[in-house]
Amino acid sequence: MASGMQHKNAISTATEGLIQAQLELYHHSLGYVKSVALRAATELGIPDAIHRHGGVATLSDIATETGIHPSKYSHLRRLMHALAVTGIFSVEGSDDDAGYKLTAVSSILVEGGESMCNLSPMVHVLVELLKLTMLCSIKEWFTDERASAMTLFEVAHGCTPSEMKAKKGTVGMFQAAMVADSNLVMEVVLKEHIGIFKGVSSLVDAGGGHGAAAAAIAKALPHVKCTVLDLPHVIAGAPTSRDVQFVAGDVFEYVPQADAILLKTRVPSIYYGGARKLYLLEGR
């Protein structure tokens, strides 16, 4: 009798393990849903809608502010539920009376919010179809001999990211994302770690794009002569500035003389490489 019960319990435990494994498998397989839900929120302007309502808004408020058609109201509820579960928003109450609030994450997706740094452009760059389809080519990238000297993006799309941005006319969107990212990073650095610039009177931001980081440094520390070095096609689109000098060139070939060189990685993706960090190196 005892042996029979033990066998039955063992089967039950094994069955529960299979169901749990299935749930985890589906959770990982559908992980992209969180990313596209976040992109949808920024495209619809949901963080801004909640911000305009004083930091808390109902579904009706959000639908009115964002111009969502009444026929999509139930789908909006599902979208907001998914965004609340993943921590993009918080929610109090239930059903139509539920109030959605900004969290630390969604507060930096607001135009004119407390941090003054709106990272919505970065979400649009990080979560887009080209990158999703690129990741579906990982097998070919690992196994195809022709891919040995190519990036994953090149294997999937037959060109480099820069060539694709030029083809699709999304260079401006990418630069807007880089500026937003730099603004947030430099806001923190200049508030909390401004001491790292002690003794620096000249600085080169290597690969500094349109100069958002350099401009922030020049504004906070007017005595520091700031120069941005980047590729010619990037510098060509940079804004005119009295505080920042732009130099076209290749960081791997030549860096102008300065007390310090600023290195900040850009997008933390599989083909841009690396986690985001900021380095201040002694110059020549």
From TrEMBL:
Domain O-methyltransferase C-terminal per the UniProt entry, residue ranges: 138-264
Domain O-methyltransferase dimerisation: 27-111
Entry keywords, A to Z: Methyltransferase, S-adenosyl-L-methionine, Transferase
InterPro entries (UniProt xref): COMT-like (IPR016461), COMT_C (IPR001077), COMT_dimerisation (IPR012967), SAM-dependent_MTases_sf (IPR029063), WH-like_DNA-bd_sf (IPR036388), WH_DNA-bd_sf (IPR036390)
One of the protein's GO biological processes: methylation
GO MF terms, alphabetically ordered: O-methyltransferase activity; protein dimerization activity
PROSITE patterns: SAM_OMT_II
Pfam families documented for this protein: Dimerisation, Methyltransf_2
SUPFAM superfamilies found in the cross-reference section: S-adenosyl-L-methionine-dependent methyltransferases (SSF53335), Winged helix' DNA-binding domain (SSF46785)
PANTHER family recorded: O-METHYLTRANSFERASE
Protein name: O-methyltransferase domain-containing protein
Species: Triticum aestivum
